[in-house]
């Protein structure tokens, strides 16, 4: 029996996924949670073989949760299951230790097969997303540029970002300028939007 943990902040989606998987004779959903913060504790309690994690959840996002889960329970195989099939997410998911990446609008049988395949030791990646990821390439943002751009998402001023990240105003401006250049944007807001669309944020 393949033991599965589901983490998705949308209760209806989580319930539908659980129903699909529980109908399979060789699968059992052993935990359902709605935030990334709960992933590791729920996994320690339920000992899943496979964890299906959404990318965008309240608190800890699915990619960060995947990395923490890999550290806490190395034997648990992680599949990122998301609405947002963005190329940058794929690279970040694999870097976080995920072995599968599927989009939610895939047919149910594809998800079921993905669970079986990763449980057997294989990797599973949505083919269209893999091709797009190769074409787009990995994120050109440095770790600091990522931090600064992420802090700018809510429209914070340079001074606000500098305080939050313990940097000088000038350093924040330099990182923002570099991020704007690397995304091909004209403004900070456009750089945030383009980075999000590409899955770099």
Automatic annotation (TrEMBL):
<feature type="modified residue" description="4-aspartylphosphate">
    <location>
        <position position="54"/>
    </location>
</feature>
<dbReference type="InterPro" id="IPR039420">
    <property type="entry name" value="WalR-like"/>
</dbReference>
<dbReference type="Pfam" id="PF00196">
    <property type="entry name" value="GerE"/>
</dbReference>
<keyword id="KW-0238">DNA-binding</keyword>
<keyword id="KW-0597">Phosphoprotein</keyword>
<dbReference type="InterPro" id="IPR000792">
    <property type="entry name" value="Tscrpt_reg_LuxR_C"/>
</dbReference>
<feature type="domain" description="Response regulatory">
    <location>
        <begin position="3"/>
        <end position="119"/>
    </location>
</feature>
<dbReference type="Pfam" id="PF00072">
    <property type="entry name" value="Response_reg"/>
</dbReference>
<dbReference type="InterPro" id="IPR011006">
    <property type="entry name" value="CheY-like_superfamily"/>
</dbReference>
<protein>
    <submittedName>
        <fullName>Response regulator transcription factor</fullName>
    </submittedName>
</protein>
<feature type="domain" description="HTH luxR-type">
    <location>
        <begin position="134"/>
        <end position="199"/>
    </location>
</feature>
<dbReference type="InterPro" id="IPR016032">
    <property type="entry name" value="Sig_transdc_resp-reg_C-effctor"/>
</dbReference>
<dbReference type="InterPro" id="IPR001789">
    <property type="entry name" value="Sig_transdc_resp-reg_receiver"/>
</dbReference>
């Amino acid at each position: 029996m393949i033991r599965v943990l589901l983490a998705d902040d949308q209760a209806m989606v989580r319930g539908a996924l659980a129903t699909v998987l529980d109908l399979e004779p060789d699968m059992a959903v052993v935990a359902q949670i709605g935030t990334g913060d709960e992933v590791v504790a729920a996994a320690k309690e339920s000992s899943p073989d496979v964890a299906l994690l959404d990318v965008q959840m309240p608190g800890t996002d699915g990619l960060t949760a995947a990395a923490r889960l890999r550290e806490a329970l190395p034997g648990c195989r992680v599949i990122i299951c998301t609405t947002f099939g963005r190329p940058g997410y794929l690279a970040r998911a694999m870097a976080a230790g995920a072995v599968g990446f599927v989009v939610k609008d895939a047919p149910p049988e594809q998800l079921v097969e993905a669970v079986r395949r990763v449980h057997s030791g294989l990797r599973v990646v949505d083919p269209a997303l893999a091709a797009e990821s190769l074409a787009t390439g990995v994120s050109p943002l440095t770790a600091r540029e990522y931090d600064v751009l992420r802090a700018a998402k809510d429209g914070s001023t340079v001074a606000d970002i500098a305080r939050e990240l313990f940097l000088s105003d000038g350093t924040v401006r330099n990182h923002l300028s570099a991020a704007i250049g690397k995304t091909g944007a004209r403004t900070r807001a456009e750089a945030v939007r383009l980075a999000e669309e590409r899955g770099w944020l």
